[in-house]
Design brief:
three-stranded mixed beta sheet, Spore Coat Polysaccharide Biosynthesis Protein SpsA, Chain A, 41% helix, alpha/beta
Length: 238
């Protein structure tokens, strides 16, 4: 039954994929199928109050949904991590697909004692040339600054995640803040294989406007503008 928490059994691989969702009916099936390439991987879908067909889409693939007691991506991901049985956690957006060999790539990246966490190279689901530019800028930032964002499928050991207290309770930038803390303690590995994320957010407002808004949010966060104010402004601009 939707919203009823299920007891999650341990997985052989030790990898748990946590997917926070909110009205992701148009993308969630493709996302889940990309995860299901490895049947032994634990899949935890955490809903934040979807009003569309998301829950039905998830359960049609034989996957249970747990409901987060609080709305918000950070809260949903933390709730999913609390229920995860794997030793490794991978956080995946509901509109992003993992590459075919994601599981061994994650495990290989975390074998290095210098690596504290990792993420994938970004790919965008569009043939338009402008998105190759966006990918290039994002991946250059990830490599040079060791600062991947949440749409690149951040992964790390559960013990490390717990040690850092999970994602900070922020209305946005929760992935940015956690990665910033992690990179102070170890290397952030960027896997060469790409996740494939939806181009919808760039197409809605246009590539350049979306990129400008994102950079202004980051700049505002650096200058310690209230995350609540930034979140309200971000929603208004969208």
């Amino acid at each position: 039954m939707w919203g009823v928490e299920q007891k999650l059994e341990p997985t052989m691989s030790g990898l748990s994929v946590i997917i926070p969702v909110l009205n992701e009916a148009s993308h969630i099936r493709n996302t889940l199928r990309s995860v299901q390439q490895y049947p032994e991987v634990e899949i935890i879908v955490v809903d934040g109050g979807s009003q569309d067909d998301t829950l039905a889409q998830v359960e049609s693939l034989g996957i249970s949904v747990i409901m987060s007691p609080q709305k918000g991506r950070a809260q949903q991901m933390n709730w999913g991590a609390k229920h995860a049985t794997g030793e490794i956690l991978l956080f995946l957006h509901g509109d992003t697909c993992l590459p075919p060999d994601y599981a061994p790539q994650v495990q290989a990246a975390l074998q290095s004692p210098q690596v504290i966490a990792g993420a994938f190279t970004l790919g965008i689901d569009s043939d338009r040339w402008i998105f190759r530019w966006v990918e290039g800028m994002v991946n250059l930032r990830s490599q040079l600054c060791s600062l991947p964002y949440g749409d690149q499928a951040l992964f790390l050991k559960k013990a490390i995640f717990q040690q850092f207290g999970g994602f900070p309770q922020l209305p946005l930038m929760e992935d940015f803040e956690l990665v910033k803390q992690l990179r102070g303690r170890g290397k952030i590995a960027i896997v060469s294989q790409s996740v494939l994320t939806s181009s919808r957010r760039w197409q809605k407002l246009g590539v350049f406007k979306t990129t400008l808004i994102n950079q202004l949010i980051i700049l505002g966060y650096f200058f310690r503008i209230s995350p609540d104010f930034l979140a309200r402004w971000y929603r208004k601009m969208r």
